[in-house]
């Protein structure tokens, strides 16, 4: 399976070194990119020494150590690559070539850096890094290129595993479609369940590893479909087996199988970055993205009056205004919003005409007055577009809020269940019409929300929601018709319940989506999602203990509002600190971001908002928060083991302080509280202690960032990683589970060996 070419490999390096990986290799995953980072860093440092005039004995020894260490690490890396090649014959030839190139490049670097024993390396006949300046650059380029090839080839194996897993799922689905007895169905469905679990693990890892946020959102949507459809497939198939002559039951089952196949196909499209028949994906343009691009072009006129044509700008505005017709033509847009959108559309055309007029004059005569007029025209055009953006946002979100509130009682679904059990076909027909109307309203809501979602991942979530309502509505209708035809059938009743639950779940998800869209619009959280650590309530969570939900009254919420506000400000500070880190995949950053998201959920609780509905939800979140803090402390200890620096004692002291505070928070969260007063005291204590942890986190993040930057600049040093063990390969070849195979013969094992390339940098 070939990877498509790309203009950029995604591997950055120092411009002074002239290094870069093979431009023909596209790196789509974080694991491949991050595996290359230490190698690029060390090679770049090595190359930059060739131009430094000062060459002390200490420097020469350091250069030789780095060269030899790189060569040894490359040798170990190549050994793993060759083992992968032997396990995967279709990639053996390509992998072997890349391994040979890497080994040769590593040996060349070792030879060129063999300078420690030379008193005057530049005058000796021996060719070194100082005498052959281009040779070491060529060797470094070859090394990076060949290592990248090995990593990308290993990544293809992960893709192959996902495709193989998908094929197994499809084959079992075909068997499930053809079964005619319950006994046979139960046996095959058990196998199907195991295969779906394997597929979920593989695709979940891939989703987390993808660099492209848009692809990540598409993968999440497809996996959500598969997860929900698995339960639907079970009940729909059982209903069809119980009532084999029922047409509505067959339609219901066929719909589930069709949707699962589409979702499986989309997963493969994402992981292989290909589409059927070679067609390119054409993403629908939203009003938000159109306005953003239009404003960028308009504001660009300040710097360059000639970089685009007036026709180009006019066409862009026409496209935006065409999309506003989705609002003005909608039966669900209020008269007031429709009028405002039409007025602003007319004003936008006038402002652009004025802008073009001044712009054309400025091209011919660049006077001070004309440039001032141009600035005014730019500001007025952009202001008009901002008002249009605000108006469509208001129209979409107010419609969504009204619809979600109106349908929150699920009256139509309840009526379908009742009339279905009664066998009242006439009443079922009446309520299916009402459900169809409701579906059209919700589909229109999703289409309008997509225009104002603000980010590509949220746009994809809106499209996924629209598809879900489009498909689930008719499936509920066919399930209700089946129950009405067989009112005493328990399996038909259970089947209708499952489809109704899917509808209710999607409505619940829409409330969260609406909140996120508003947050993006108001600039509160950007693209960051609230940390979802709580299990979703439902009848399938029967293993959870029944908890008495306790909510705070208005007076109690007012008391903790000040603490909540402090917590909110601290989350903003932590987010600001994490954004300063170059390596966003660093373990410390990941834990910090997770803790910030959880603290934000707790802040929303103090306002009576968010996912934490009861005090028990808050206490559970506090426990998870404390656990994440303990994990962060472990990461800090790991950092202190690697770093030799004057700040090390302070780092260890702060880590111990964090562990102590997290333990106290866990004790508080787990303590029993009887009665309203005791519960409120516990809530207050949990939020107070969370605030204290966040305050400490605000101090820790810049300290860690400073230490890492010092080491990168050469003011400290990183200890070499533990020696590589030969028996890792032998252990891997005997692994039986898919997860173990991925871990040993995939990117993760190669990561471990490229880590060995991080060695002493010269001071």
TrEMBL record:
This is Alpha-catulin. It is found in: Cytoplasm. Residues 7-18 have a biased composition (Low complexity). InterPro entries: Alpha-catenin/vinculin-like_sf (IPR036723), Alpha_catenin (IPR001033), CTNNAL1 (IPR030045), Vinculin/catenin (IPR006077). Belongs to the vinculin/alpha-catenin family. Keywords: Cytoplasm. One of its GO terms (biological process) is cell adhesion. One of its GO terms (cellular component) is cytoplasm. The keyword Cytoplasm applies. GO terms for molecular function: actin filament binding; cadherin binding. It comes from Copsychus sechellarum. Its main location: cytoplasm. Pfam families: Vinculin (PF01044). Residues 1-20 are annotated as: Disordered. The gene is Ctnnal1. Coiled coil: none annotated.
């Amino acid at each position: 399976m070939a990877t498509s070419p790309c203009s950029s490999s995604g591997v950055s390096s120092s411009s002074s070194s002239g290094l870069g990986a093979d431009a023909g290799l596209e790196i789509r995953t974080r694991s491949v990119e991050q595996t290359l980072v230490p190698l690029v860093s060390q090679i770049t440092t090595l190359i930059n020494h060739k131009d430094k005039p000062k060459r002390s004995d200490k420097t020469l020894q350091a250069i030789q150590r780095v060269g030899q260490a790189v060569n040894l690490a490359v040798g170990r890396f190549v050994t793993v690559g060759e083992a992968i090649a032997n396990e995967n014959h279709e990639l053996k030839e390509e992998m072997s070539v890349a391994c040979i190139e890497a080994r040769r490049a590593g040996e060349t670097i070792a030879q060129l850096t063999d300078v420690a024993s030379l008193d005057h390396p530049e005058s000796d006949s021996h060719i070194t890094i100082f005498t052959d300046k281009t040779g070491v650059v060529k060797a470094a380029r070859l090394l990076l290129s060949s290592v990248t090839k090995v990593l990308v080839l290993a990544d293809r194996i992960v893709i192959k595993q996902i495709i193989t897993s998908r094929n197994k799922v499809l084959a079992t689905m075909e068997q499930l479609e053809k079964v005619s007895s319950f006994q046979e169905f139960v046996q095959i469905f058990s196998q199907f369940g195991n295969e779906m679990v394997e597929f979920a693990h593989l695709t979940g890892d891939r989703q987390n590893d993808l660099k492209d946020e848009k692809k990540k959102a598409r993968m999440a949507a497809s996996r959500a479909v598969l997860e929900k459809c698995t339960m639907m497939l079970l009940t729909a198939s059982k209903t069809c087996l119980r009532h084999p002559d029922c047409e509505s039951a067959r339609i219901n089952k066929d719909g589930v199988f069709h949707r699962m196949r589409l979702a499986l196909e989309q997963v493969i499209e994402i992981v292989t970055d290909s589409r059927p028949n070679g067609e390119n994906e054409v993403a629908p343009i939203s009003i938000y993205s159109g306005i953003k691009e239009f404003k960028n072009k308009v504001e660009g006129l300040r710097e360059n009056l000639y970089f685009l044509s007036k026709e180009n700008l006019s066409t862009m505005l026409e496209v935006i205004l065409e999309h506003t017709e989705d609002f003005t033509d909608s039966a669900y847009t209020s008269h007031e919003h429709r009028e405002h959108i039409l007025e602003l559309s007319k004003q936008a055309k006038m402002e652009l005409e004025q802008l073009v007029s001044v712009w054309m004059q400025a091209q011919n005569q660049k006077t001070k007055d004309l440039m001032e007029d141009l600035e005014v025209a730019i500001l007025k055009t952009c202001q008009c577009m901002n008002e249009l953006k605000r108006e469509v946002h208001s129209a979409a979100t107010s419609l969504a809020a009204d619809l979600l509130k109106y349908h929150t009682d699920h009256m139509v679904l309840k009526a379908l269940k009742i009339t279905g059990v009664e066998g009242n076909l006439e009443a079922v027909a009446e309520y299916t019409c009402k459900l169809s109307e409701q579906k059209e309203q919700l589909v229109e809501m999703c289409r309008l929300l997509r225009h104002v979602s603000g980010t590509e991942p949220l746009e994809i979530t809106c499209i996924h929601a629209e598809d879900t309502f489009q498909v689930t509505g008719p499936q509920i209708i066919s399930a209700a018709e089946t129950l009405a035809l067989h009112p005493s059938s328990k399996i038909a009743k259970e089947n209708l319940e499952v489809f109704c639950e899917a509808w209710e779940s999607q409505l619940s998800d829409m409330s969260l989506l609406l909140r996120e869209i508003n947050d993006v619009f108001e600039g509160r959280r950007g693209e960051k999602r609230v940390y979802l650590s709580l299990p979703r309530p439902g009848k399938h969570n029967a293993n959870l203990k029944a908890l008495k939900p306790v909510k705070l009254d208005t007076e109690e919420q007012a008391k903790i509002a000040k603490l909540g506000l402090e917590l909110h400000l601290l989350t903003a500070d932590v987010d600001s600190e994490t954004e300063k880190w170059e390596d966003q995949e660093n373990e410390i950053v990941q834990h910090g971001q997770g803790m910030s998201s959880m603290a934000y959920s707790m802040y929303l609780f103090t306002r009576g908002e968010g996912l934490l509905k009861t005090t028990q939800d808050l206490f559970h979140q506090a426990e998870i928060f404390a656990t994440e803090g303990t994990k962060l402390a472990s990461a800090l200890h790991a950092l202190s083991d690697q770093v030799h620096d004057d700040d090390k004692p302070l780092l260890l002291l702060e880590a111990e302080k964090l562990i102590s505070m997290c333990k106290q928070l866990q004790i508080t969260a787990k303590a029993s509280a009887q009665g309203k007063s005791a519960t409120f005291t516990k809530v207050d204590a949990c939020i107070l202690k969370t605030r204290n942890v966040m305050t400490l986190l605000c101090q820790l993040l810049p300290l860690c960032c400073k230490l890492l930057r010092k080491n990168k600049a050469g003011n400290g040093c990183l200890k070499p990683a533990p020696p590589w063990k030969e028996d890792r390969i032998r252990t891997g070849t005997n692994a039986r589970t898919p997860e173990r195979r991925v871990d040993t013969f995939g990117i993760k094992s190669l990561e471990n060996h490229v880590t060995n390339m991080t060695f002493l940098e010269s001071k």
